Amino acid sequence: MVVTLDSKRRLTVPASLVKAAPGDHFEVRFDAEEDAIVFRRVAAAGDWLAVLKECPASMEDLPRRRRALPRRRKL
Description:
This protein is mainly beta. It has a domain of 34 residues. 8% of the residues lie in helices and 16% in strands. It contains one helix and two strands; from the N terminus they run E-E-H. The protein has a two-stranded antiparallel sheet. A hairpin with a 4-residue loop joins strand 1 and strand 2. It starts with 25 loop residues before the first strand and ends in a 22-residue tail after the last helix. The model has no long low-confidence stretch (mean pLDDT 82).
């Protein structure tokens, strides 16, 4: 399949080629050896709670926050 770059430097990919929706993110890389542009879909943002559960450090192990506001350094 051949796609053409328009005057605003955009490529339009037919919907029948890939199941993509507006707002999907892609990583674009130029392969000099093949003289080709490679698009790779980047995973959507994950569930923050699932990411927090996979965190190796428990919340109890983190140092306590200081309540005092930071002081200005003398220059």
